[in-house]
Records
---
Amino acid sequence: EVQLVQSGAEVKKPGESLKISCKGSGYSFTSYWIGWVRQMPGKGLEWMGIIYPGDSDTRYSPSFQGQVTISADKSISTAYLQWSSLKASDTAMYYCARHVFGDWHFDYWGQGTLVTVSS
Amino acid sequence: QSVLTQPPSASGTPGQRVTISCSGSSSNIGSNTVNWYQQLPGTAPKLLIYSNNQRPSGVPDRFSGSKSGTSASLAISGLQSEDEADYYCAAWDDSLNGHVVFGGGTKLTVL
């Protein structure tokens, strides 16, 4: 069974750094792209970027380029989303999902990680 | 402002057929396939339709998708109370080195 399990909720202060994770299981982790999607409170879905764990090829949405870093450790089947300096506007639910190449749909989703940034 | 345009809300009574539209441009829907996601309250999104009109295993055939030019539609027939959710369209966009764009979402209310 394909599963994506994300790390738990985080509460951080503005300016702090953060790295959240997404562990895949039940499939060949290095053969599928993993993407990250942001959902701000009461708002819609926003595609942030993707990584191919097989060779760490990474692509970012123009809106998120330079704002976050996406990485992966294929040895432990885990993808990451990282911030170096959080802002209050980063408060959101973050989902990881498995991306299917070509059609680019997300076929399996993680349960989400709620990030709250508040002073 | 989302790149793909959806109506913010839709509604119907049980048993009815409702459609949700998704409008884009030549760089996204006009040249790539459309996918639809359902998000029930408090849960992660779920793939509903991929490649314009394909249903993943387990998705009832009450749900169907179509695409024409730079627009797409999701149709739900035999509306049920458990269909009350947010629905999002998405497509690959060829501009700016390529990225996925989502619609703003449509909140479906079953009256």
Note: Residues 52 and 67 of chain B are 6 Å apart (CA to CA).
---
Amino acid sequence: LAKTTQPISMDSYEGQEVNITCSHNNIATNDYITWYQQFPSQGPRFIIQGYKTKVTNEVASLFIPADRKSSTLSLPRVSLSDTAVYYCLVVYQGGKLIFGQGTELSVKP
Amino acid sequence: DADVTQTPRNRITKTGKRIMLECSQTKGHDRMYWYRQDPGLGLRLIYYSFDVKDINKGEISDGYSVSRQAQAKFSLSLESAIPNQTALYFCATSGEASGGRTGELFFGEGSRLTVL
């Protein structure tokens, strides 16, 4: 199973772009990369998923280099409400979904 | 109504007691999961099930058991609760994406268990 490694915490200010990088050195050919957001006392919520290159939706972008050993979640112009824990998750065909420790993002005014 | 419902939301119990946490879903998904969350440790997988007849151990299954009573119901039991099982427990469901891959996970609101 691909193990993920993320920074434990990050700080930012409102209006800035935030990039959170996740490393997954032993990702397999058919694995996908997924990011989740979690607020205190709530279950995680899906943000974005990708396989390679770049994926963008209404809330974030996901950049995956050609070797796929890492991925970067990009949050444009963060606000205070983006303060949360962000999890990188490698999804493979086996179904045993293992979360990492997550990155605690703190957005300050 | 929530798509994934967990009961109870909060429970305080004593060491040695048997506890059951229940999860039901209206998503129509086949795949269901139980996770445990502790401060600083992220989410750890306890058990998961791909259908009614399929049960699989996760990272930390010791001290826990599960029952998949129906497609929509997946229960987690602590046969004899101990204090280090004090945690926030999450149930999640997902469908199957292309190539047999697990689709997006949908989580319940969590069940906070305290074992004294």
Note: Chain B has a mean pLDDT of 93.
